[in-house]
């Protein structure tokens, strides 16, 4: 065997003894053309990685904006509930008001929106506007400042979200009802009625809001407010799953309020007639007359006949 054949044999033998190498001799790689692929200069390593894992990154980073808003507002509501439990009514009210300002206002009808948009274009920035509320019994928030021109789009988007997403309506109803509870504790009866009414715009059958509005109206103690209180108690009586204690209060109110309404009605009529008489005497006095010269007697038609007597 020649020297070259011997070298050839040793090379093949060595190759066959290793399982990780091929028995076919490799070609000279230096003879193959080299192709170089480079990324654009403007593309960073992070961008290249994002191209490879784009769908995963997209799902990780995108969140529901409404859920984010609700999470922020829930923290304010929880803080208000804690302050309410500590009997710090005013601080609790402030927390609920702050949370309400984060929420979009109740959506308007198409005609109302057009009217509002027209006034904004003219430079008028003013505009009108399983429940777990966290307080056992259970504001009307201050009027919000109108959106500036640069915030108008954001305001419109929020209004649309309010109309479409029941989570925001539910949260706004709860916050307004909690505010009403604070107003009752602070003995601000009118604001309690207004806050309860705001809550009922989002949830007309909200038991606690109806109850608090009835309580506030009864405290106002006018003929109209007492009648409104009775109407709310009657509505409550038709709702399902009422607590026994509330049902008892409703029955007592239904028995108590009709007499109070009648008494208040007569009292207000008498007060009104006294005011009219005073006004009449002021005018007639210039002619040497008074309302005592005029007599009113009921007639068969249910009206009154007037006669003049010296």
TrEMBL record:
Residues 43-54 have a biased composition (Acidic residues). Coiled coil: none annotated. Residues 1-61, 106-153 are annotated as: Disordered. Residues 1-11, 128-144 have a biased composition (Basic and acidic residues). Residues 31-41 have a biased composition (Polar residues). InterPro entries: TPR-like_helical_dom_sf, TPR_domain_protein. Residues 12-30 have a biased composition (Low complexity). This is TPR repeat-containing protein. It comes from Melampsora larici-populina (strain 98AG31 / pathotype 3-4-7) (Poplar leaf rust fungus).
């Amino acid at each position: 065997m020649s020297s070259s054949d011997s070298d050839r044999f040793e090379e093949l033998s060595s190759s066959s003894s290793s399982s990780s190498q091929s028995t076919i001799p490799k070609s000279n790689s230096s003879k193959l053309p080299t192709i170089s692929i480079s990324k654009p200069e403007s593309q960073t390593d992070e961008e290249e990685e994002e191209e490879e894992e784009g769908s995963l990154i997209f799902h990780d980073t995108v969140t529901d904006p409404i859920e984010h808003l609700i999470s922020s507002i829930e923290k304010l509501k929880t803080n208000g509930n804690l302050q309410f439990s500590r009997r710090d009514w005013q601080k609790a009210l402030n927390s609920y008001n702050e949370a309400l300002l984060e929420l979009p206002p109740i959506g308007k009808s198409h005609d109302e929106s057009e009217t509002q948009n027209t006034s904004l274009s003219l430079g008028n920035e003013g505009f009108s506007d399983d429940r777990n509320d966290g307080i056992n019994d259970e504001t009307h928030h201050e009027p919000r400042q109108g959106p500036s021109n640069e915030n108008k789009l954001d305001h419109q988007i929020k209004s649309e979200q309010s109309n479409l997403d029941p989570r925001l309506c539910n949260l706004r109803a709860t916050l307004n009802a909690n505010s009403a509870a604070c107003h009752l504790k602070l003995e601000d009866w009118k604001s309690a009625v207004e806050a309860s009414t705001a809550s009922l715009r989002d949830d007309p059958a909200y038991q606690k809001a109806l109850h608090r509005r009835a309580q506030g109206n009864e405290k106002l103690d006018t003929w109209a407010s007492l009648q409104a209180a009775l109407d709310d108690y009657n509505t409550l009586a038709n709702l399902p799953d009422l607590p026994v204690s509330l049902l008892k209060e409703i029955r007592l109110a239904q028995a108590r309020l009709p007499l109070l309404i009648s008494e208040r009605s007569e009292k207000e009529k008498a007060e009104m007639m006294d005011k009219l008489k005073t006004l009449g005497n002021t005018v007639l006095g210039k002619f040497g007359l008074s309302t005592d010269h005029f007599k009113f007697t009921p007639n068969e038609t249910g009206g009154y006949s007037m006669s003049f007597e010296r």
